[in-house]
Amino acid sequence: xxxxxxxxxxxxxxxxxxxxxxxxxxxxxxxxxxxxxxxxxxxxxxxxxxxxxxxxxxxxxxxxxxxxxxxxxxxxxxxxxxxxxxxxxxxxxxxxxxxxxxxxxxxxxxxxxxxxxxxxxxxxxxxxxxxxxxxxxxxxxxxxxxxxxxxxxxxxxxxxxxxxxxxxxxxxxxxxxxxxxxxxxxxxxxxxxxxxxxxxxxxxxxxxxxxxxxxxxxxxxxxxxxxxxxxxxxxxxxxxxxxxxxxxxxxxxxxxxxxxxxxxxxxxxxxxxxxxxxxxxxxxxxxxxxxxxxxxxxxxxxxxxxxxxxxxxxxxxxxxxxxxxxxxxxxxxxxxxxxxxxxxxxxxxxxxxxxxxxxxxxxxxxxxxxxxxxxxxxx
Length: 379
Description:
Elements: E1 22-24, E2 32-33, E3 51-56, E4 65-68, E5 76-81, E6 87-94, E7 99-102, E8 108-112, E9 124-128, E10 133-137, E11 143-144, E12 150-155, E13 169-176, E14 182-189, E15 198-205, E16 210-216, E17 220-227, E18 233-238, E19 250-255, E20 261-266, E21 272-276, E22 282-283, E23 297-298, E24 304-307, E25 310-313, E26 319-322, E27 327-334, E28 341-347, E29 354-358, E30 364-366
Antiparallel strand pairs: 1-7, 2-4, 3-6, 4-5, 5-6, 7-8, 8-9, 9-10, 11-12, 12-13, 13-14, 15-16, 16-17, 17-18, 19-20, 20-21, 21-22, 23-24, 24-25, 25-26, 27-28, 28-29, 29-30
């Protein structure tokens, strides 16, 4: 990517890594809690009861990870853990069907069914880490902005349509979680020549003033980078124009938690292209990334990369922590304004996965096995 607004690209993509954590409860399974400009009609309806009761109020201003504590039988209990693994708080939740998604800093929680677009009778709620309700929202397939003040979501053009599958146009909506107010930022459309796919919100960063949206099907077929404050498109690429530097297919895009760095995985040769999303300029990489695997996630400031083989410095590619292969791992979150990474790790000999934290010096911190990990919402 090059810095050129004439070529519709003054900034670039970011991705899945403003990663929020998700707590999904189905049956009794314990899971990890994680990380547009048309007029929006909101219909107020009676909401089903969601009750959140504080057990232990965590400290304000401290980054937290939220998990369901499966050791508490018959109750839905969330535990707040700091990035050193210490339990800092807890909430008891009562609701009929609930998903839980924590903001990247863990100071706010989206709780509710989150299965249907629009504010229906089973409305979703946003709570503070202390258990205080902040607002009633449409949480369908929503993800948190990097600083936790907004929920970001894509919506199909047809109001009430449950999914974006098959829609070539999507609208980006932002919800203020303090007030519940919603605004439409912009619409994105794919070139019909790229074929079928589905729009996916990869990242939403108010601090970088960027949202990254990909049209995906067996790789990234189109990519859009929007300026949140204005709705302006700062980069638009379809087909091989997603990565003009190599003119090749892109298998995936990952974005740092702060929304300022994006990495495109080149499907053909295993190399990567890194981009500064604020300036739109390419980030120089030393040598080839080949052999380290596709970048699944980035740390908050983009200086560490998660691949199926472990955690590497980025873009230098030095191994910080190697996965105990054969193993399967899922990147589940990055420490706000820090370098630690939360992973869900399954090793061949284990009967279940385990959440682990990889610290910036390569130390592996194992969290209690009762806190089973799950990929982020939507589910």
